[in-house]
């Protein structure tokens, strides 16, 4: 699930929500909502997150469960 994966990535990189928010051009509140699972990023934001971290969208959405994305 994105919220869990995002928490892990931010922790691994020792990155605060505010710093990440600035980097992907959203508010800190938006990042907080993503991390808590209260909302999910738009497709555009999801691509921005993946690009920022240098990973694919599937790595962010599916890596935690190690399941393949739906076909």
Give keywords:
single chain, 71 residues, mainly alpha, 434 Repressor (Amino-terminal Domain), 5 helices
List the helices and strands and how they pair.
Elements: H1 2-12, H2 17-24, H3 28-36, H4 43-53, H5 57-62
Q: Give the SSE string.
A: HHHHH
Shape: globular
Q: What distance lies between the first and last C-alpha atoms, to the nearest angstrom?
A: 17 Å
What's the oligomerization state? single chain
Let me know the average pLDDT: 86
Gyration radius from CA atoms, angstroms:
11 Å
Helix content: 55-70%
Structural class computed from helices and strand pairing: mainly alpha
CATH class term: Mainly Alpha
Separate helix tally: 5
**What CATH architecture label applies?**
Orthogonal Bundle
The name of the CATH topology is 434 Repressor (Amino-terminal Domain)
Q: How many individual β-strands? A: 0
Spans of 5+ residues with little confidence (pLDDT < 50)? 65-71
CATH H-tier superfamily: lambda repressor-like DNA-binding domains
Q: Largest beta sheet, briefly? A: none
């Amino acid at each position: 699930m994105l919220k869990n994966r995002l928490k892990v990535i931010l922790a691994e990189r020792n990155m605060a929500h505010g710093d990440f928010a600035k980097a992907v051009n959203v508010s800190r509140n938006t990042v907080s909502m993503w991390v808590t699972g209260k909302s999910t990023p738009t497709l555009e934001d999801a691509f921005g997150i993946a690009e920022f971290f240098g990973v694919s969208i599937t790595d962010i959405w599916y890596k935690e469960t190690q399941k393949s994305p739906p076909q």
